[in-house]
Amino acid sequence: MSEEAAAPAPPRRRRRLWWVLGLVLGLAIAFLLGFAVFVARAFDPAAPSMQETDGIVVLTGGSERVATGLRLLAEGRAPRLLISGAHPEAGLVGIIAAAGHDPAPFTTRVAIGRAAATTRGNAVETAAWARAEELHSLRVVTASYHMPRALLELRRAMRGATLVPHAIVPSTLRAPGTLWKASTWALLFGEYGRYLLARAGLSALASPRREIRDS
Question: Which keywords are on file for this protein (predicted)?
Fold first, then answer.
């Protein structure tokens, strides 16, 4: 073995190596801590404020979200509601009936958006509706695990608007033993990854067409 090969790495190179390792470790710890907070809020979100808003938007993905939005509308939490991201062939009466409500009291107060197929699309669709209706505050109804990314995209599309989160813990997270299911962690890990991509400005990568549905 030559003397050159046996010589220790120069101090500067060692310092650079330790700096890189420290950076990687720090990023890994930050990722895991962020994921732990994300999971805790998905299972136990903060209680929603019950203040009145100019409107309610339901980001579709399951009938429970729609039913909650309609209940809030009936309670007078807002005068109008948008169901964003509805299936192109879904009709208003059918959507309301499927959520367990009588359509008659709601048909003049509920709008359907069918263009959005992603969270970013939801935000664009909601912003256009809010501008047309001159709404400055919205209650946002979606799944607890989806709320962080939904608020992120909505704030980008509706700068200056007041957004009130109304998170729903879906049945996929309420079922007995769900904490020990691989599918639960795949769902949460996937959504956390999409949230980080959206935070980085890569929403196109974070929003696959027709995102995961839940109840």
Answer: Membrane, Transmembrane, Transmembrane helix
- Going by DSSP bridges, is the β-strand pair 81-84/162-168 parallel, antiparallel, or unpaired? unpaired
Q: What are the beta bridge partners of residue 139?
A: 56, 164
The answer to whether 141 and 59 have CB atoms below 8 angstroms apart is yes
**pLDDT: is 66 or 15 the higher one?**
66
Sequence-distant (≥ 6) Cβ neighbours of residue 166 within 8 angstroms: 48, 68, 72, 139, 140, 141
pLDDT at residue 215 above 90? no
β-pair partners for 82? 57, 111
**DSSP H or E stretch at residue 44:** none
| Domains of the chain by residue range | 55-169
| pLDDT tens digit sequence for 38-81 | 999 999 999 999 999 999 999 987 778 999 999 999 999 999 99
Name the pTM for this structure: 0.85
The Cα–Cα gap between 154 and 140 comes to: 9
Is 3.40.50.620 the CATH classification of the domain at 55-169? yes
Provide DSSP, 49-104. P----SEEEEE-SSHHHHHHHHHHHHTTS-S-EEEET--TT--HHHHHHHTTS-ST
H helix count then E strand count, the chain:
9, 5
Mean pLDDT score of the chain:
88
